[in-house]
Specification:
Largest sheet: 8 strands, parallel, barrel
Strand content: 15-25%
Order of helices and strands: EHEHEHEHEHEHHEEHH
Number of domains: 1
CATH class: Alpha Beta
Shape: globular
CATH superfamily: Aldolase class I
Radius of gyration: 16 Å
Strand order of the largest sheet: 1-2-3-4-5-6-7-8
Number of helices: 9
CATH topology: TIM Barrel
Number of strands: 8
CATH architecture: Alpha-Beta Barrel
Helix content: 40-55%
Bound molecules: ribulose-5-phosphate
């Protein structure tokens, strides 16, 4: 099974702290995300600076876009993002309009969505989804469980590249063992760690251990 990618989510509320964090760890993650919080605070500059720092990395703008997909995507792409996210309740025309402007669109799965909708995303040419445990649901006591794992499994079987995110830790990565997860997206587990670069090394090592890969 291919080693899942490690993606860091920069969910900072100001640009200087986000840049400080990314300079420390950027070289050691596979994908860099300008998180939703940072997009709302300083999106364009955050994408531009991240691109200048990491010309070769895949950069995602986590816009969770619901409408005006083409315009939002054009803005993200011109700032330097490769991929952007759209929310699962956005219309197919919004997703298609976004997909014309960026290299790839990822559908963020929150709340209610159906496998029938997911078939529609595949038909529209969108092959990446992000299975998300909402930060607020986690704060309210939710936890990863078998229902989540079953949904991730079905989405993979449908043909999606599935990223997983929301409150992930070194300890709970093991839950996904046996699943061909495409990417683990980690925010606070890296950026709020006492030593973010050590946290990155530990996440990478644990992913390699569980997925039986050295690289
Ligand atoms: C919140 C997000 C976060 O960027 C993502 O879930 C990672 O966050 P954390 O690891 O801190 O829970 O998309 O909407």
């Amino acid at each position: 099974m291919k080693k899942p990618n490690l993606q860091v989510a920069l969910d900072h509320s100001d640009l200087p702290s986000a840049l400080k964090a990314v300079i420390e760890i950027g070289n050691n993650v596979d994908i860099i995300e300008v998180g939703t919080i940072l997009c709302l605070q300083a999106g364009k500059a955050a994408i531009e600076y991240t691109r200048k720092l990491y010309p070769e990395k895949t950069i995602v703008a986590d816009t969770k876009c619901a409408d005006a997909g083409g315009t939002v995507a054009q803005n993200c792409a011109s700032a330097g993002a490769d991929w952007m996210t759209v929310i699962c309740c956005a219309t197919i025309p919004t997703m298609k309009a976004a997909a014309k402007e960026v290299k790839e669109v990822q559908v963020e799965l929150y709340g209610d969505w159906t496998y029938e909708q997911a078939e529609g995303w595949l038909e529209a040419g969108i092959t990446q989804v992000i299975y998300h445990q909402s930060r607020d649901a986690l704060f309210a006591g939710a936890a990863w469980d078998d229902t989540d794992l079953q949904k991730v499994r079905i989405l993979i079987e449908m043909g999606f590249r599935v990223s997983v995110t929301g409150g992930l830790t070194i300890e709970n990565l093991q839950l996904f063992s046996g699943l061909a997860v495409y990417t683990f997206i980690i925010g606070r587990g890296i950026t709020a760690a006492a030593e973010p670069n050590s946290a990155v090394q530990l996440f990478q090592a644990e992913i390699c251990r569980i997925w039986g890969q050295t690289k």
